[in-house]
Amino acid sequence: MTGILAFIVVFGVLVTVHELGHLIFAKRAGIMCPEFAIGMGPKIFSHKYNDTLYTVRLLPVGGYVRMASEEMEVNPLNAGMRIQLKVDEKDEITHIILDDKHNFTQIEEVEVVESDITKEMYIRATRLHDGQEVTYNLAHESYFVENSQLERIAPKESRFESKSVGHRFMTLAAGPLMNFVLAFVLFTVLFYVQGKPTDEAVVGFVAEDTPAEEAGLQEGDRLETINGETVDGWNDMSAIIQEQGEQPLDIEVANDGESRTVEMTPVVETTELPDGETSERLIIGIGAEMERGMFSPILWGAEQTVQMSTMIFDLVVNMFLSIFEGTFSFDMLNGPVGIYKVTEEVAAQGLITLINFTAILSVNLGIMNLLPIPALDGGRILFVLYEGIFRKPLNKKVELNIQLIGVLFLLMVMILVTWNDIKTFFL
């Protein structure tokens, strides 16, 4: 149960922050957003505010911001359909009433001849009371009314494609950007809570029932040499211990100006990985000394975000290179099932580890969404950049076909990765 809750919370936070980035920048650009959804599938909660329906959906595996655009506008009106219209003093339509579940008065009942709610923004209809055919224009603020619910019809100037290249670029890039911001905040919080490990070979704490405790190592001890080898730092100390193997170590220690020599034998620590494999390393049972500060954690948080971004970017590049080198394997990828299993393992190690894992996942989500793959943010950004460079949008039919190919590609990859995860973790 803990693993499931951790997965829902972690995924929920990552998706919410990502989609919130899109929403904030879209609204700042004047783009109408009919829906902001966390999760996929059937709605379990909804609340409407400022023409945006905020929903929480059943499956915690994604989310989206539905932005008004020409492609997203669905016209429910068909020729011969009988509807009711509410018009203002300019004879412009303010409400298109699709059923009788309403309290409007002074409405006009008509039969639709033809309509356009995406470009020309009009309805041509025959009035039932006198049989006259009339063309009505839609008011700037107009709504569909059905089941007592109002859904605003997006004005042309409030749609995604009507905005400048800069506004569209920032709206699309804001999702990944917010994931990097989240990672920075989480890393910074962790540094404030627990400090930053120093690279000096100084004992910060000694674990119970370990060789270090039995040998009498104490907090503040500085490891000078191991079996005669000079220790230059924490990483150097760890490397020497691994090189020496499972044999007695003579360690020269300094503390408060006094030196002493202790003897201990490392033990093997076995860690079970989420995929069922195990990892082994030699340990003596000490932790690094922590450095703290008032403002330093902010700088450390930024550095950690950059370092993690660089590392993950390199891994992604190498993964794509492996496709051309013939060494690619789906074991390099994790789908929702794999992420759930890893989250379950990480959650068992405590809140601090889970927060660190969430920050890493956030960086990963930001980078993956920036990949120039159609249907991802990076692919859509390419279309916007194309328009900015060539001063004209890509042919709509070509763009839609590319998007469709991207969706099918991602769907196929997701199916294969999920099946690989199932085989790895459950079969």
UniProtKB/TrEMBL annotation:
Gene3D superfamilies given in the database record: 2.30.42.10
Class of the enzyme per the UniProt entry, highest EC level: hydrolase
GO annotation terms (biological process): proteolysis
This enzyme's EC code(s): 3.4.24.-
Molecular-function GO terms, alphabetical: metal ion binding; metalloendopeptidase activity
Cofactor field: Zn(2+)
Protein's name according to its UniProt entry: Zinc metalloprotease
Gene that produces this protein: rseP
